[in-house]
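User: Second chain of the day. Same drill as before.
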Amino acid sequence: MRHQTLFVLDFGSQYTQLIARRLRELKVYTEILPFQTPPEELRNRGVAGLILSGGPMSVGDKGAPKCLPGVFDLGVPVLGICYGMQLMTDMLGGLVESAKEREFGHALVNPESDSSLFGNLTDELRVWASHGDRITRMPEGFRSVATSVNAPIAAMEDQSRQFYGLL
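Assistant: Same format as last time:
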């Protein structure tokens, strides 16, 4: 039997297994794959969507892991989480820079009510943050859909391509 699959590309986050487990609990067939998995393999395996996990590095670090550019041409929804959002930004022409202060621990995020990610949520969310970088320019086609004190772009979306990012 062939089915659609959601793949989590692993960039070294300590939460990669938790992300996959939560999706499986929702009855979504999910597999974790290495970040450098070729787009052709994803397509051949029935990719329905991708999650780019977080990771311990900064996208500007020498040797920082990067997925192959073709993953953004598969025509499937992509969600970048933390490092995954920053990597998506970097690879699609946006700008990621070091933040003046690291954000670690609980943070308050203010989402836009008209976003597809946060439309049914409250005006303020208490989240767990762990990053030292921030997005200072989004790639073309994206809009900011959430802010925090340390991250003016705490979440972003490009609805036309179904690309989403969360810090």
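Helices lie at 16-25, 39-44, 83-91.

User: Great, on to the next one.
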